[in-house]
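Hey,
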Amino acid sequence: MSEQLARINPLSAIFCDDIRREDNGKELLIGVYSGSLQVPILPAPVMLSVWVPFERSGIGKVPIEFRLLGPDDRMVGHGTIELNFAESDYTVGSLPLRGLAAMLVRPGEITFQLRQHDESWTTLRKLPVEKR
């Protein structure tokens, strides 16, 4: 009997300023970007959080790597995390990625990408960046 490789299926990605967890376990997204990220000057340092709800399958460890690409597709932020799922764990969850720092040098788009098990990068969301 072969075991199924543990993995997540990201459902979306939401850019916001911060993610907090309430005492009852609910996650609270603060400063959700529904349009564009507007900065007064460029270059501009920004601190973003990304909330990724997911469905999961399999049992075991899921190594996850994520990155932010700037308008010129150059990596401006990067991180890793490892999730570990037991058989009794829920099949849905979320990945709250807090405090991703990036230096933006020109208008364009920030791209959030994720990969697991050293597979190919998957783009989950793009956020337009505008100078106001």
